[in-house]
Amino acid sequence: MLSSNVYWPFLAVYFTQASASCAYGTILQPREEGGAVKVNTFGYIGMKGPTNWMALDPGANSLCANGTSQSPVDMVPGSFSMIPGAELGLDIPDMPEGTEFENLGTTVEVVAKGGNMSFDGVQYKLQQFHFHLPSEHLDNGTSMAMEIHMVWQGEAEQVAVVGVFVDLDEGPGRAAKSTAKTRIGGGRLPAMKNGFFHVNAPAAAAKKPSALLETVLSSVDGIAEPGTVVKTQPLVMSDLVSTLSSGSFQTYEGSLTTPPCSEGVRWLVSDQKLSIQPGTFMKARSVIGFNSRFPQNIPGQRNILAVS
């Protein structure tokens, strides 16, 4: 496995296409000047879909069909290294004046106004977060209603993505029961190499709808057309930070889940779920539609398209 402070050149090599991807808004794919929103040229259905991404641009998108560390994957309990959320030092300031909320054609994206995270000796800055519907990663074989991808950029242009499952809130007494985390000896989980440890950690159910997501997605009908942008209402990020910091993250080295499918991306998938009201989900779905890449093979195995 490549250390997080040496894999970044592999990302830069493969960022040559013009359409916006998961890393839009980072140094790898800077935003357009003048506030214009870059609209994607790939898609998720038919000839523009994931099985044909390489054919859309064979030179740039080769890893989509040939890469061996591709994302998303099934987050099977006990199969990935874990790190406590508190060790990441997550710090995301509130946005009292709101922020830009954009439609990139294949997802909707919130532009971050700051945020810090530390992992494996690298300091990261939050660039943006966007939504996939349904979830791209699976939670032990189960697809969730949505998944948030929070995209971070390191000091030397490394890219890390925090994945957060989003489920539907079904009201008091009807939400799925949280699955308790396994603790060894009832105390702190034992450390392993690089500070990681292994433990069964299915995502824990949310206790109530996320006020942050309800606020963000209340504006989604204002960006129904690709290339449009609106200003959100004030966003309070502290509840999200508290929720993520209270849990743990399953971590692995994978790829962007959109073309050019660049590898060397550090994934941190939270074991803490968020939830939204069904009406909010329906509103978001009417704009986002379907935008999930199919699950990939275990990192290190041959690309699923190469063996199909």
Task: For the structure shown, list the relevant keywords.
globular, Carbonic Anhydrase II, eleven-stranded mixed sheet, 308 residues, 6 helices
Head-to-tail CA distance between termini: 26 Å
- Shape descriptor: globular
Mean pLDDT: 84
Structural class: alpha+beta
Share in helix: 10-25%
What is the architecture of one domain at the second tier of CATH?
Answer: Roll
Secondary-structure element order, as H and E? Answer: HHHEEEEEEEEEHEHEEEH
**Which topology of one domain does CATH recognise?**
Carbonic Anhydrase II
Question: Total number of helical segments?
Answer: 6
**Main sheet: strands, sense, barrel:** 11 strands, mixed
Low-confidence stretches: 1-19, 175-201
Radius of gyration, in Å, reads 18 Å
Structure commentary:
Its EC number is 4.2.1.1. This is carbonic anhydrase. Belongs to the alpha-carbonic anhydrase family. It catalyses: hydrogencarbonate + H(+) = CO2 + H2O. The chain is α+β, with helices and mostly antiparallel strands and 308 residues long. It has a domain of 207 residues: Carbonic Anhydrase II (Roll). It has six helices and 13 strands. Strands 2, 3, 4, 5, 6, 8, 9, 10, 11, 12 and 13 form an eleven-stranded mixed beta sheet that branches. A hairpin with a 2-residue loop joins strand 5 and strand 6. The longest helix is centred in the last third of the chain and has 11 residues. The protein is globular and about 45 Å long. The two termini are 26 Å apart. 43% of the residues are buried.
